[in-house]
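User: structure tokens for DNA-binding transcriptional LysR family regulator, please.
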Amino acid sequence: MTGEMIENLGADGACAACHQNSHVEYSFFSADRLPSPRSYPFQFYFEDATIWTYRLEYGTGPMDLQALADFNLVAAHGGFGRASRASGRAKATLSRRVAELEQSLGVRLIERGSQSLRLTDEGRALHERTSGPLSDIAEAGEAVVLGASTPRGRLRVSAPVLLAHVAFGRIGARFAHAFPDVQLEIVAEDRLVDPVEDGYDLVIRINPSPDERLVGRRFLHDELLVVAHPDQQRPTASAHDPDGVSVDAVVMSPTPPDTVWRIRHEHDELMLKPRPMLRLSSMLMMRDAVLAGAGAALLPKLLVDDDIAAGRLAYWGTDARPPVEIWALQSSRRLVGAKVRAFLDVVEQAFPNRVFVPPA
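Assistant: Done. Predicted tokens:
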């Protein structure tokens, strides 16, 4: 590397990537140590005979590339705990690897407090100069691995509690049988997770808001139905109640007091004003309460379809609003790998024509 190239990259440090045919070399070094650099190669061989060599050069001794990656992971997430949750690596391992990196460099990179973590000036400089090249290396390796025909590795999926309860146990079992080389983890949660910050390959969202950071596909649409215990009589439209007929109901907590259900049934349209008998935070609890005769409720078809078919619940009508859309999303910064594609294929097979089919 010439002095001009070094100057263009900065007076006190530089990083360069050189491409020679199928050979790629990354070098990290400090300009003031150039008279006696040391080289430590890391080589990866792929099926197409391409050789990727990652060479770390500096004057004090070998720098562990994995330790450097762990340090950047901790720095990017702002703490060992967050980095551990995002990567699946043990918090103690990350702490030990960063400590070993600090020892090998002879400088402190992170100030560790009881409640917070802060990068030192040296840590901030190292993170800024190496996080980009390390990301390039990871993406290059991932791009090569994506060409593999067999899905493998760890796959983390976040799904809403209701959908996980109704469908994703069986979906997970089918996937595990079909792709034993993938370690699948499905987390049932209703909080709005960040796939990058929380370390998920896929997140399942209901009626997601547009977000340029996320891409994916819709695999299911569902309708909301008003259902009740068969003993509860369905009201009829009345000219005396143009704003809606009051009915005993089980509602989500919180539900605005002026809520109105506008439902369609065949050629009939009806306005209902739910009179809350119970306020519950879970649709599973709501379904059970309706089965016990506590009142009518507005619930997803995928949750109550089999109860209607079996006569345990009476169908009053379908919500007049557009159907609910359910999407599988991932970060737009990540490539769609073989394991993700395989999982999405299994999900779509479980919902033919994007409609929920209850298990036999």
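User: Anything notable?

Assistant: The two ends are 67 Å apart (CA to CA).
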